[in-house]
Amino acid sequence: MMGAMTAAPLTSPAPRLGVAFVPTYPPESLRTLATAAEDAGLDDLWVWEDCFKQSGLASAAAALAWTDRVRVGLGLMPAPLRSTAITAMEIATLARMFPGRFVPAVGHGVQEWMAQSGVKVGSPLTLLRETTDALRRLLAGKEVTTSGRYVHLDAVRLDWPPADDVPLWLGGVGPRSLELAGELGDGLILANALTPDDVRAAVGTAQEAARAAGHELTDVHATLIATTGPGAEDRLARELPQWGAAPDRGIGAAGDAAAIAAGVRALADAGATAVAIQPTADDPDLVGFVELLGREVRPLLHA
């Protein structure tokens, strides 16, 4: 856990800075967060799709409509929850409505949640590979016929494919998931509540797979749970167990703008190119926190 400190020099390029719409906040609070992120000059807003909370695609669409500049990322859409054809239609629609501002990401889903939903498959990685391959071809405007283990399409072609290339990011936690994300993804979404060493190891695994596939992994998204103001250390310690992290593992940042910037820089030096700040569920002034990120933390990263 990081307290107030002087931000260390950044040895890697300054990452994109965003804020995460945490699923512990109610859906009706998204508009306030999205417009605050835009007004504060943040680069990104990331929405989640955890079962059984907000719809990630509905949240992304609303956030894009409420803003004009900020990039909106969706991490992650669980592949088993939607057919590949409808996922392609949804991505293409948002990409055409808001060109260059939507970053979709897919994963194989949390298996316990997939079982609860009645869509758990025998090989989640096979499903994710088949889904990613079909999505890429559909979003490129191609007619797709395929009969895989899980994905079956018969002469499907989008009437309105994206006008421009849409990045398709993948995410995962385990080594095999990270390898697949590195091999097939345009970017990598990492799990929340990771130390810089965790991020470095995950990026290394994915990057090795990317290079074996003949390309470089150039976009990596990481999350930093952060707090500021009175009682920040205590609030961070209370928040971390909700995300499977012990308070004494060096995860998160608590303190002033310099402390949060140092946390972001540590993740950037570990390989993250975009960092979303995740506020705590009990943050007493969410808009004020977002303003701090845009007007004080972001300039420190670019100093």
Automatic annotation (TrEMBL):
Pfam family, one: Bac_luciferase
Endpoints of the signal sequence: none
UniProt-listed Gene3D superfamilies: Luciferase-like domain (3.20.20.30)
Domain of life per record: Bacteria
Positions of the Luciferase-like domain: 26-243
Protein name: Alkanesulfonate monooxygenase SsuD/methylene tetrahydromethanopterin reductase-like flavin-dependent oxidoreductase (Luciferase family)
Species per Swiss-Prot/TrEMBL record: Isoptericola halotolerans
Higher taxonomy: Bacteria, Bacillati, Actinomycetota, Actinomycetes, Micrococcales
